[in-house]
Write a structure and sequence with these properties.
Layout (H helix, E strand, L loop, with lengths): L4 E11 L3 H34 L10 H13 L2 H4 L3 H19 L15 E4 L5 E2 L2 E4 L3 E6 L10 E10 L2 E11 L9 E7 L2 E4 L4 E3 L4 H15 L6 H32 L3 E5 L3 H4 L14 H14 L1 H11 L2 E5 L24 E3 L6 E3 H17 L13 E4 L5
Parallel strand pairs: 8-11, 11-12
Antiparallel strand pairs: 1-5, 1-7, 2-6, 3-4, 4-5, 6-7, 8-9, 9-10, 12-15, 13-14
Helix pairs in contact: 1-4, 2-4, 5-6, 6-9
């Protein structure tokens, strides 16, 4: 990406306009799912054969090798030849990336896709005219969004069409000119906790209350478990459960946008957290079972529901500068005298320094420590003796 351009994604409601177009769009999404599953089955067999033979290395998987196999599959599948080639083949890029993450032990093994919530990616030559997106071999479809397109001068470079709860949505990626973010000169440290965000300015912003929606989801799950699999009644309840889950997700995402917009006036300092490690299951193994499994599972759900990674990503493109600092001992350090002692945390929400007696909310005290570490980095301090930086920084003003 050039220094003077950025990429922005806008979600639209996609209206096919006719039953025939909706049917053909569903067929295109089904073709992407079919190709994914067929290529995944082929790769599973190759990996199993290599392991059975005792090979030192597993067969490599790349978009190029999967693309060659796709061409062979397309030649022997007549109905697949009627589908646009580029969108169907591009589904294999996601699979190749998933295999690479699996081989690097950065993610789980790719899984087979089932019917429902399908998606199609238009990787190139995106045509949008008069508020309509042209889908290859199907035709134009209306894009609808409250407020319209916020980037009328942006160039669309990619579009992802996804079906959610029976409705179609299109996420269009635009290449737009970079805009300088005004900096008000403030430096704000934020402590991201389960269900809330605390700032160094003394403010605690709790996540939205989704208790009623969560109770509805549990109730629908119990009802769905009593229905016969494959029945219409079970499918009806499943759709209601999916709608409730989406309402919760949209409510939390709206909160993240409001919080990030409020904090994005100046430099924002966050903790460099390892969310994957923090939300790892505690159930252990059969021989060595874990302890407090249910409590840890509840904490994991609360952390993931808060959406630390999404909030940090929003701050990265909204704030003029984002600094991520080491999170070690920020909650055990006194923001007044700097004493580090675990005894200063008598409870989850209380901090009382054993050295100077300073008392404060634990999250607010941690946010002040995070801000201080960010300020040290901005003034050229806090580097390791070897010269390796302790933090990662995103600063759009230094791009040039």
């Amino acid at each position: 990406m050039a220094d003077d351009t950025e990429y922005r994604q806008i979600v639209y409601r996609l209206l096919p306009g006719s039953r025939e177009k909706a049917r053909r769009l569903a067929a295109l999404a089904g073709a992407c799912r079919f190709v994914w599953n067929a290529m995944l089955d082929q790769q599973e067999q190759l990996v199993a054969a290599a392991r059975l033979a005792g090979a030192d290395r597993l067969p490599g998987v790349s978009f190029f090798t999967l693309g060659k196999a796709f061409i062979q599959l397309r030649r022997i599948t007549p109905w697949l030849q009627e589908m646009p080639c580029a969108p169907v083949r591009y589904a294999l890029r996601y699979q190749a990336d998933a295999w690479q993450r699996y081989f690097r032990e950065e993610g789980g093994r790719p899984k087979f896709k089932r019917r429902g919530n399908d998606s199609v990616t238009l990787p190139q030559d995106i045509r949008i005219r008069d508020g309509k997106l042209h889908v290859p071999k199907i035709g134009p479809m209306t894009l609808r969004r409250r407020g319209g397109n916020p980037y009328p001068d942006g160039k669309p470079v990619r579009a992802v069409i996804r079906q959610v709860n029976g409705k179609w949505y299109a996420t269009v990626c635009y290449r737009v000119a970079s805009v300088e973010r005004p900096d008000d000169g403030t430096v704000t440290g934020i402590d991201m906790n389960a269900g809330q965000v605390a700032t160094s300015d003394g403010e605690i912003m709790p996540a939205p209350d989704t208790g009623r929606l969560e109770a509805r989801c549990k109730r629908l799950q119990r009802r769905m478990s009593r229905q016969k699999k494959g029945s219409r009644r079970r499918e009806h309840i499943r759709r209601r459960h999916a709608r409730a889950m989406r309402r919760m997700a949209m409510k939390r995402r709206n909160w993240q946008h409001h919080v990030s917009r409020k904090l994005a006036g100046g430099t924002v300092v966050v903790e460099d957290l390892n969310t994957r490690g923090m939300t790892r299951s505690a159930k252990g193994t059969v021989g060595e079972p874990g302890t407090g499994v249910r409590q840890k599972a509840g904490l994991n759900r609360a952390i993931l529901a808060t959406g630390w990674s999404d909030l940090r990503a929003m701050l990265a493109y909204k704030a003029p500068r984002l600094v991520a600092v080491n999170a070690a001992q920020t909650s055990q350090t006194c923001a007044e005298c700097g004493t580090v002692d675990a005894a200063s945390r008598p409870s989850q929400a209380t901090f009382k320094c054993v050295a100077c007696g300073h008392a404060d909310h634990a999250d607010l005290n941690a946010a002040r420590n995070i801000r201080r570490r960010g300020q040290a980095r901005l003034h050229g301090e806090g580097a390791l003796p070897s010269g390796t930086p302790m933090i990662r920084e995103t600063d759009r003003r230094l791009a040039a």
